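Progress report, Aim 2. The chain analyzed during this reporting quarter is listed below.
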Amino acid sequence: MTDTEAILHAAQRAGAQQAEVFAVQSGETPVRFEANRLKEINARQTSGVALRVIVDGRIGFASSTKPGDVSELVAAAMETAPFGPEAHLEFPRDGEAPPVDVFDAAVESLPVDDMIQAGQSLIDAVRAVEPELLCDAYVRRGGSTVTIANTNGGQVAYRGTGYSAWVNGTLIRGTDMLFVGDGDASCRAQLDLKAVETSVISQLENSRRMAEARTAEWPVIFTPLGVASALIGPLTMAFSGRLVHQGQSPLAGCLGKAMYDVRLSVSDDATLPYRPGSRPLDDEGVASRRNSLIEKGIVRGFLYDLQTAGLAKAASTGSAERSLAAQPSISTSSVLIDEGEMRFQEMVRSVNEGLVVEELMGAGQGNVMGGDFSGNVLLGYKIENGEITGRVKDTMVAGNVHQALGRRAAIGSESRWVGGSVRTPALFFESLTVSAK
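Predicted structure tokens for the chain:
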């Protein structure tokens, strides 16, 4: 009998009508650089198991990192059940999962020397352009095995790997601080470090001069980095089936309605090969799939885990994510915004006076659940007469992502991956609130 079978049998003997085991074994080797120097090389292994039980219609939960701790784990889960939420789910039965490639053996055998060289090459490339830059870099390889089993016969396991590299630079001159950075992530042992270097160098070149912003309603262009830092969170939050069911999403009651620019299409896809957010099954053992959220401006669907789907009389969309210490919740995997018709440089040339946003700091302020975003421009540039003229300071941008995407906006024709889990082009809004000191 396997460990998962032993836990399930023990839970049933203790009185659980249903039980589910979620087990993870993982290992990672991070290489860290700090202030242009190699700081730390580490390796760590972790493993743990989480147990959900349904007892008299309520959900109990417990987790443990102690191997073989079956009786204590089951007892802890059973004790929490009377106080747990009412169960509106059935654990999935054994079914087919799509073949999603998320494992590359080359990642696990990647030499640490190669990782050190990757981090050092990123630092050297950007400091060749700006020698005073203080750089932190992070290169990580890792792998995990996920096992999910339940008393309804569901039994799945898969292996995944991850490899990522990031560089962030700070330039301090008097009271002025410049922050630049970018990175790449994959399930494979290959990263596009040249694209990372090019991106950070472009940020440095655009920041060589300073420009003055002013308080006004301005055209604003969000680069792919800017879209990911400021807009993806408040946009995708509205597609949470839990918030829709509770009536807290601005899209409640809007399924099938045209709410956005007709050129906007957005999806969430966990089946893309070798993407960090991909997987053959979600963390409840439901098969992964592509979920269309917006299609040509029309709201096409929401995201559900098992519990929320049960409450909403819907079906799980394979969107459950969890840690060992927490029960599943709804999460996106890889968010994709379809490309549009306008190149980034065309967007810039079309603006008399406006702003380019690379990153907002504190974009989660305001009524995020309603789609609001507001934050200081950590990195952004002034546009004057169709050209980027320099970096702005002490500037804020605010708006509502649903309203902004509902008005006519240009969508970029060149998309890229940001953070490994968002693929987006630039987005151009004709008017947003810009505030400057």
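The radius of gyration is 24 Å. The first helix runs from residue 3 to 13. These observations will guide the mutagenesis work planned for the next reporting period.
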